[in-house]
Amino acid sequence: MTPGEQTNNLALLYEIRCMQYFTPDFYLISENRKEPTMRYSLMCKSFNGSEVLDCEKFSVNLENSQYTFSRYPCSASITTHTLPHGQRLDITLSFHEVTTVPMNFSLSMEAGQWKKSNYVLMPGAVYNGNRFTSLPLPYPPYYAPPQNSQLTDAEVITSIPHLDIEKTQSRISLLSGDMASSLCGFYDLNDQSGSVLLSEHQCGGYYTGFTVDENQVDRQASFVLSVPGVRENTQYFFGDQNDGQGFRPDVSAPSQDTGALFKQGETLTLTACVFHWQQISLWDFFKQVNSSKTTLEIPEHFYNVPFYKAYISIKEKYQRENFIEEGYYSVGTDWNIPQQCWQAGWIGGGMNSYPFLLEDTSEARQRALSTLRFIFSRLQHPSGWVFGMYGNGKFYGDGFDSNSDTILLVRKNADLLYFVMKQLLWLSENHHSTIEFEQPVRALCDAFVRLFRKYGQLGQFIDMATEEIVIGNSAGACMAVGALALASEYFQSAEYLDVAEQLGEYYYNNYLEKGMLNGCPGEICQAPDSEAAFAMLESYLQLYETTRKSIWLSYAEYTCEIAMTWVMSYDFVFPAHSTAAKRGVHSSGTIFANAQNKHSAPGICTLSGNSLLKLFRFTGNAKYLQDLHAIAHSLPQYVSLAEDLEFTLEKKYLPPGYMNERVQTSDWEGKETVGEFLYGSNWPEVSMLLTFVEVPGVYVDFTSCTVQVFDHVECYVTQWDQDSIHLELYNPTAYSTMVTLLADERTNARRLTHNYFGNMKTVPLSAGERIQIELKK
């Protein structure tokens, strides 16, 4: 932005975002391009519950036209608007009589010459059609394949929505709230073309539905948008099953959906966009999906809770409830449950100490150091690996019902090593002795190297004692790439860097190139997930920061496009009676966890997202700042504050400083849970702590004259000189805060690396206060 402009004008950001979409610069369009084999239909269906009673279907052209149904008392008129690479359709359904049976209305996009190799995408829910081996496993699932086949068998998922690997006919049917964006589509790898059907998540007060129906006999697949959304006959449900098979995910649970009754004279307008792109790569397909997903639904800008207020609330809670007398920060508050005492990495173990090391100067910092000492004096196996779970003097394995306490989810140690390296670097740079940690941390690094040298991969689960991979086929341990890159800097080890680079190529060739990263959470088998995508992004950026090889930056940009498909792009309209609606929650910027656990969540599990800030620094593309804004700005509204406690489904309030991981836009656990929160202390607290120390409230780049506000404050540029900038800050929230400001020159590669909290300027700002400040270059 140019000097003197209001720098956090979100309307301008959205204008820029729209301009990026309407003027795409990455398509190579052939003059003789082959148009997709695509047909379109309008349908009306009537229902008894979720069972279809009758259906009437018209083939239509995407042009201004009108159609009258013979078996339903309605007509449809289509108004079309041309878009680059597609069309916008406003389809108005008019009823000339009252309907006596519940019904819905659909637009279908039908692809001919269909192949199972086509990549089917439903953001936040379905990646490559979720075409994996699906088993009806109880929760938490743990499926170890037969010995000696763990590295070659197909990926396993539980009973979640998926297209079948072998069957000629299969279907995925979701409501809009089941997805991060209201769209579905596919990429044809053979033709290098992509198609998407997009709409709003709500129409006429009804949630829309999206169905992918594959019929290999007819070599056809239908992508269907419906209002009201009706998952016919069955739906995905996670809980205690009526078949007596216990608590588990089940894609064949009875559907609770039905159609709607309409009055004479009533109208319903369904707006949709269809897009088709030719001569593009899979990377370009993800890129265009992210560019177009806000075509119809642009999130609202809001102010809620400042970063510092959220951080201090959680920090006080951590000192009050999360420090165990044995000498470490726990990951939960109920210490009678081992999983809430210690878990390495993943949900915070050895990561939650890092923000306090950087920000605090007294007790919290000493406890952070104590946590590091406890990890490497008490929790490390002789092989060098760190136990995945511990509580009250006993070790536990990550294999759930497995008897061995040496079963380890490798991702846990990858996360742990990455954050331990960041802490060692900070200690070293700030003249603290690290001698006591160096040998045990080297032992952990060496364990990763041995495992990779033995198998050429890291797998998903291993046995620490035998160092054998128990379950492979996962990108879950991909944070090890960044961890070993950092370790190579700290220990000056060429071997660590060599393994990091080989692993980076392995994950690209086996996962990223196929458009799917999977298996980071320990209880989803090998399902696609957002955590692997953001961990991979973090790793590639660290590898680029360490080596300055352009290939890793290229991989990072590709990974970012996949990761951002998991981020909610719109503000879900919660049921009016729900807690989320009463609190005015904005769902945009929250992140779907994975394809099994169908809730969105505050933040990245478990990162700040500062990788997006680094992507901007390395590329100059302001889009990445906007992506980070969406994620970081959303986080604080989910912190339960003493002044504004969050009510839960258990009919009690979350204590101050607690955050719960549920942002329920899906009814995967029952319709009554939509817009509600569960009781309990969860990992988003760590994401918020990390955000405060790694994402500046206001970021200024002197190289490009860019100012980006992430925090819940307003910022205006009043003067921009060669070596300084004058800003006016205003706090529109009800809370006093401490705003962090970071001055940067993005072309100075070493200005921001591992730890830069100490480079930030902090400015106190009372509720409603407006101040003038100067920030020097």
UniProtKB/TrEMBL annotation:
- List GO BP terms, alphabetically: carbohydrate metabolic process
SUPFAM superfamilies in alphabetical order: Six-hairpin glycosidases (SSF48208)
User: InterPro entries annotated for this entry?
Assistant: 6-hairpin_glycosidase_sf
Entry protein name? Uncharacterized protein
Q: Which organism is it from?
A: Paenibacillus etheri
